[in-house]
Every structure is written in C-alpha cells, then in structure tokens.
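Write out the bound-state structure for glutamine.
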Amino acid sequence: MSEAEIRGLTAAQALERIEAGDVDAAEYAAAFAGLDDDLNAFLWSRDEVADPGEGPLAGVPVAVKDIFCTEGVPTTAGSKILEGYRPPYTATAVAKLEGAGASVLSKTNMDEFAMGSSNENSAYGDVLNPWDHDRVPGGSSGGSAAAVAGGLAPCAIGTDTGGSIRQPAALCGIVGLKPTYGAVSRYGMIAFASSLDQCGPLTRDVTDAALLLRELEGRDSRDSTSTGIPGGVELPAGGDLQGLRFGVARDFSDEAEGVEPDVAALFRTTLDLISDNGGEIVDIELPNATHGLSAYYVIAPAEASANLARFDGVRYGLRVDGDESLGEMYERTRSQGFGAEVKRRIMLGTYALSSGYYDAYYGQAQRVRTKIADDFRSAFEKCDFVVTPTSPTVAFKRGERTQDPLAMYLSDFFTVPMSLAGIPAISLPAGLGASSGLPVGFQLAGPAFSESRLLGAALTIEKAIGFEGRPG
Ligand code: GLN
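---
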C-alpha cells in the first residue's frame, strides 16, 4: 500500500491490515510523519518516527491536544504563559494510549486554556478548517479536529468542558465523544473547569472512537474523581435500533432559536433514518437545560479563576520580571502571558465568587446545574438517548464572532447541558449541508456510563447515514 492509501484508512482498518501482515506498524506510523501542516493544527510534532509499541493500538499515531502534559515535550495549552514549558511527567490519558502501543504524533493547537469555540483564542494563531480555510474548525479542540479531518493524523484526543470535543468534530465532519465525567483520568490534563473537564477521542468514525476510549478509560489513583467505566467499553457491533427510544426536546431540536436551515434539515433527515432502522422518536422535555449556558458561564469561569491562579511566573513557563516587588512580577507575567478571553473569564469568575455575590451567582448556578441533571434523569425514564444537533450552525467565517463573546458562547448551546449533567455524548457527521456544502453534526447523549450502548447506537446511525465526505 502507498503512504496515501495507508493514510486513507481508519485506525481500526489499519490495525486489521497490520494484523494481516499487509502493512507494517512502523510503516503506518511513518505514513503520518513530516506531513505539511497547512492548517496550523500542530504546535509540535515528532521529528522522527516513534518505534511502534506493543498492544492493541500498536503503531497508531495519535494527535494529542496541547493541554495534556507530555514529559519532555512542549506543552502550552495554547497560551503564551506556558511558552517553553516542558512538563516533567505525562498525563494518564496519554500514558495509557502509549501503554497500548500508540505513539504521540503531535501536540495540537487549541484555544488558550480550552476557552473558545473557534480556535481563534490560541496564542499560536488560528487553526484553519480543512473544508474551507476561511472558516474556523470549531474549538477548543480545533487542532485535533482539523488534523483528523484534514488527514494529518488518523485519530486524536481532546478535552471537552462544555463542547470542545463535540463542536469541533461537528464543524470538521468527524466523530467526537465526550465520556461520562470521571470515565477518563484528568491527571496531567491542564485544568480549566475541574468539575466539567473530560478527555475523549476525535476520530474518523465511531469504531475508532470506541477503540481509543477502551484504552483511555479507567480509574486512576492520581485523580480522585476518576471512576473508569464499569465493565469497560465494548467495541460496537451495529445491528438495528429496534426497541430503542430517541428523545427529542423541542428547545434542543431543529426548532431551537438560531438553528441554520442546513443543520435543521440534516437533523430531521437523521431522525428519519433512525425511524427507518427501527428506532422510536419520542418527545421529551428538558425544561431547565435552556439555562445551561447561563449556569456554565458562571461555573466554568469561577473554577477557571481558581485553577489559573497557579500561573504566576514562578512555577512554569513565562516570567516577566518587575522592577521591584514580587507582586509586580506576578502582574506583568499574567498581563502579558494571558490572552483577552482568559482574562475575561478570570474576571468573571473572580467576581462571581467574591464575598456578597457568591450565593447570587455561583450558588444559583450550581442549583441550576442540579436541575439540569434532574431534567436528563427524568428524560431517560422515557427514552434511551437524547438527540440534538451538535452545533446550531455550520463552521462560521474566521473573525465573524471574535468581537462578540456572547455570539461565540451560543455555539455551545446544545453541548453544555450534557457537560453540566456529567453524561456522555457523541457527535457524528450527519452529512453536508445542502446550501453550505459544509459538515453538520448530530449529537446523541445517554445516561452516565452508557458509553458502550451509546457507541452501539451511534455505529448503526453512522452506517445508515453513510457519510464518506472528505475535504477536497
Ligand atoms: N466553548 C466553551 C468555552 O469556551 C467550551 C470549551 C470547552 O469545552 N473547553 O468555555
């Protein structure tokens, strides 16, 4: 097989070829080495091909979001404040992939500290959407999504706090899975909002997502909130959707405000495919989830303001010396090291947590969060999965939302509720929009730890959709 043919395979297909002796594990890794990164997807890439390890992922090169600490390899989280930082240890998620035989191919560009929906908040430049270079790839795992969609890597990992795996997957026409909170260890993953952050795969198809998640999940003594997935992850087999109920809530459907016609049309088409394959579409309600964004934009900045206090010029990366005091050094380092969106979140978060306001903002947001989790609990009494569009729009133009943070925040309307509830959700490509010609995502969410069932249903829907699109 030629290198280009090898790059055309999914990871699962490549592993089959390796198993059959048609392709060598070293050849597989080499097929992705030294490719021209015309998308600005990578912040670092390995200059030599790594020796293939042993295990179920032997030879698979993985693009890793630059938020995961990798021993001796630059790790910036997309921020200038971590420029030059080389961690002395490796994140558990990465170590587990390496333990399964995979190798880190590259570290991917991202919105600074995972704050953003377009990858325009990176200190290292925008990432381009492989379908249209004038458009954003989504964020914050935009580099991971663009790399997989653009054929620069067979698979990637990212993190999702409010949508950062699912939304870029949707905008780039690939699969993105946010596992149940606690399924994958957060150890070594630079913290944004600790009660929401989760690591997950970005892949070309559902089978590859399952393949990676099976290795990623697990309890880790170094992350006390990690539990792993009880029973592990079963590789999906497909089959029909007989007996499965798919819940649609009006406020989170094609009828929601701001949903583009391309997104609405493919959402309906996918629901029809689900019915054709034996699934039942049922009406549900998520009455509190419409307040998800409001709660998220209090809780996430609040946690971020605390987590980002550690970047002070003393421990890691950048230091800008002051003339006199230590305080001045902190101030200069932070004002030069952080970008505008990160500063905005720190200010919002610090304000929301300040004495006298704590209960009115943070306390209230936590109560809303509990109600949203209750919404899903009630919904799952009536259905097996909740389905929604992943993003209200297709990939938007670069620069279009940078001056309007609220418009940017609306990108996560459909993904934030599941993050607040801690439940797993996957985005699949539903097809290309009739008028835009750009990818549209379809989201399925299930109860906590239902990953194996979720992947099973997703595989069947993926086959029914039959999306083969690749950027030209
Ligand atoms: N876009 C959302 C934000 O900016 C979500 C980001 C994420 O999931 N990391 O916070």
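---
The mean pLDDT is 96.
The chain has 15 helices and eleven strands.
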